[in-house]
Amino acid sequence: MRMSKLIGERTKTTPSDAVIKSHKLLLRAGFIKLVANGIWTLAPPAQRISEKIKNIIREEMDAIEGQECLFPVVMPRELWEESGRYSDIKDEMVRLKDRNNRDLVLGMTHEEAAVHFVRDSVKSYNQLPFMIYQIQTKFRDEARSRGGLIRVREFTMKDAYSFHETQSCLEEYYARVYEAYNRIFKRIGLKNFIVVQSDSGMMGGSIAHEYMELTDIGEDSIVLCSNCDYKANMEVAECVKEKPQETKMLGLKEVYTGNAKEIKEVVDFFGDITQKDMLKAVVYNIKGDVEKNIVCFIRGDLEINESKLKVVTNANIVPASLNDSNLIAGNIGPVGLKASEKLEIIYDQSVEGLLNVVVGANKEGYHIANACYGRDFMPTKIYDISKVKDGDKCIRCGSKLYVKKGIEIGNIFQLGTKYTKSMGMTVLNNEGKEITPIMGCYGIGVGRAIAAVAEEYADEKGLLWPKEIAPWLVYICAIRYDNENVMMKSEELYDILTREGIDVLLDDRIASAGFKFADCDLMGIPVRIVISPRSLEKGMVEIQSRDGVLKEEIDFYKCIELIKTYKAN
Amino acid sequence: MRMSKLIGERTKTTPSDAVIKSHKLLLRAGFIKLVANGIWTLAPPAQRISEKIKNIIREEMDAIEGQECLFPVVMPRELWEESGRYSDIKDEMVRLKDRNNRDLVLGMTHEEAAVHFVRDSVKSYNQLPFMIYQIQTKFRDEARSRGGLIRVREFTMKDAYSFHETQSCLEEYYARVYEAYNRIFKRIGLKNFIVVQSDSGMMGGSIAHEYMELTDIGEDSIVLCSNCDYKANMEVAECVKEKPQETKMLGLKEVYTGNAKEIKEVVDFFGDITQKDMLKAVVYNIKGDVEKNIVCFIRGDLEINESKLKVVTNANIVPASLNDSNLIAGNIGPVGLKASEKLEIIYDQSVEGLLNVVVGANKEGYHIANACYGRDFMPTKIYDISKVKDGDKCIRCGSKLYVKKGIEIGNIFQLGTKYTKSMGMTVLNNEGKEITPIMGCYGIGVGRAIAAVAEEYADEKGLLWPKEIAPWLVYICAIRYDNENVMMKSEELYDILTREGIDVLLDDRIASAGFKFADCDLMGIPVRIVISPRSLEKGMVEIQSRDGVLKEEIDFYKCIELIKTYKAN
């Protein structure tokens, strides 16, 4: 490819709405262009990276006996009704109508399509296990797309689906995918990723893992143990629950606390208590059902983990507005509060055994002091619905936990029979009995992977691509391309390297050395070869790699071998 | 790949709704599965063929300096409003809304996206010419999807867009694409294709060509000259217009013709005339505007070419219902008929000079005899709006034309400035003056190409793939796979060939030879190697190719070289 023809504008200025590194640099280097909110065009360099990542994914999926298919982007409503997701998934799924007024959806994932595809032809246990996958465009109507390719609405995704006779067969295959994913992310160059337990969310199923690139710009919180191997997404992370100190129960006391509503205000009001000495009440609705409230009580210093709460309630909960209820914001407490058809009460495990705590009095402007678990309130529904925080103790080894930020680059799920059961897929086992296959599903977002690599590698000069996915491995900087010798030698090197199967970008523009170096660095091409009138006089070229491995003046023809060696290692 | 695990059901019975060869066989061989009307899942073998075709396309596009990008499937309404196509294209385009009620469309082609992508970064004539392309999923809401992969709603398409400073530069590049397309279709194995002039339809622009696979199941009509090189899609095909014989004008005569309304009925009524002695009237509306009628007069033996009429009227015309007009169906004639705001009158060139013809009297039950061009009716709008028919004379050489059926497998358009102008793209020329780049666009449907190859190659046994795109080149038929020697040798050969980079399908099922041969033939694998206990006793295998080139018993190890040679030639 010639720089004189390469489409995409490279700029020095950073677009004002871009705040994270990969977003800024992918824009500045002309790799991506925004078409609409969360919808991008990939310019040639980004498309080249994308294809290289797709090929790595393909190789690793094929190596674990994956069979590549292609499911449709547009699917009929009926298919998604079979699984129940047509109504379960809300605004994230785009619905549309065709010319005959039939309802269609844009695929977000393809469990339904996968089951539809195989349920008629796979009839016997000896066709199991198998895995099918595709690399296809998906659309999710994210409420808040952001960060360039980090969170988008339209994206290219590899999604894979495996089918098994038994849970142990699924687990065995799941372990193979786990390792294949590690190989994929290592091959594309990522070093700062970890695998964590996660919530299976809208996919259904139980055991799930996420591949997380650790980065400060991450939108996910990951809990890690300072001692053992424990790692989990905040959504599902657990910690040792502190037992409250034993103490003498004191008498209940109603206290006028006026406008003190927030935990911090009430603590200040009392003066002699800490947040741990209070119960906090947080109220939710089930989305679309504003009639019913769910009140959650949790120790005052902790936060509700809404992901855990969703699992516990098995519902799409949202923070409630209290306008239409009898609950008094800032004064809600468990003493005397009765569950009803319109009110569900859930306690976090942190509440267990708490004595002499301050709670809301369910009366405008009042709190109650010295409320005691067991005496004044007795939870019937008590679950782990709290967030782990820095310094909590590891549930495995008791050591300190800490919280890091990350972005999800891949996920694997043990789906169970959610889709095969609802969609009526059965096979005959070796006794001729109908059984329902157990599924796993496995996703990688290609664009997200590009962004993750950009985040990890970019430096103050610009992007920097690992050689296995670099759009071009070599950038030939022809200094004074209008010099006949430079032009001839640049073109010769360009031809030789291209014939050797090396991806080369030739800067054939009439421009200054500094201008060309800046573009090369901004675009993140791993190896730069400088051909100038001065070096050619000695029959030499300058070669330099961004990773510092190469940096020398070398004979023109020897540089070819050097690059081949560099590429291979 | 192992047949025991390959997903996709092979059946002996032909689905009743499949009428054409490729549709039947792709279904029977388990290559495709219907998800909804015109929407398919590609099973692994079809996906493999698709990837091979995509790679051939990529190589040829890159060879003419194409730069691969990726435009989005989902685009904002505003982008399509810039070009005017948001309103110009009707039901074929699917419109949808996102969670914020913003209008989006599913891309049918990507001229808008291409211009949007480059208009900010391409600013100077010396960045021209260039070509960008993508291979991406598209959706067109076809009213009548049919024939398996022949006419679908969702499909994978390679679409390319070139940008030029001058028309001559476009023409030069267009010629290169023309040749690249010939190479692509030859490489995927097609032999029965031709290139014809065509209508540029909803793309806009003037000069256009279609690549047509000649086949009886085609839905397009192609006009070919029996002598010279003239070839054109029926939509734009022209022929020599016969001059009417000179004769004496007779007196106008109103005749009561009662219920004789159709041309044939009126000819029968008069008895002494032929269809050529009549004028036929055909009425259209502009779609969405039922108020206005367009009456077309044409010689009675000819048919209106609606594509030409659309170009002439520059409108989306549809056959009219006459309920709301003063026109009398079956009795419409030019004598005394006045054009108005609600009535446009257009004549085909065949009407020119006609004397003493029978025409409608614009009066229920009456016709007029002896109407004469120039005396009784004098066209102001006269165009070529007729269809060429078998036996018409070539406009180039005067020889006989004939009409064949074909399916479009690719198209190339000289777009002109329709999109760059409407979307405000300009570059500075070498005098520093703003000019509007001229575009070309170039499409190939990947699924359609698969179907075309299937149509051309399939025989009574099943599909038959040319080796460059075959999903697998070799099918190892292990006869008695439960025999230890057979299993060992089959697996050995499978491993060796796979390592040699040859795509192999190993039939490792416990099944009869006939069953395996039938599957191999149905799936269209080019080379079959039979490994049986009997042949192995002699250290031999049987090798046979569907094209008849290979057919021998050969030493086990020698067959590897033979296959490598076969593949390379």
Structure notes:
The structure is a homodimer of 569-residue chains. In chain A, strand 25, helix 11 (484-499) and strand 26 form a beta-alpha-beta unit. Chain A has 569 residues and is of the alpha+beta class. Chain A folds into 3 domains: 21-237 and 403-455, BirA Bifunctional Protein, domain 2 (2-Layer Sandwich), CATH 3.30.930; 253-383, YbaK protein (Alpha-Beta Complex), CATH 3.90.960.10; 474-568, Anticodon-binding domain (Rossmann fold, 3-Layer(aba) Sandwich). Chain A has 14 helices and 29 strands. In chain A, strands 3, 7, 8, 9, 10, 11, 12, 21 and 24 form a 9-stranded mixed sheet that branches. In chain A, strands 16-14-15-17-20 form a 5-stranded mixed sheet. The two termini of chain A are 24 Å apart. At the A-B interface, strand 1, strand 2, helix 2, strand 4 and helix 5 of A face strand 1, strand 2, helix 2, strand 4 and helix 5 of B.
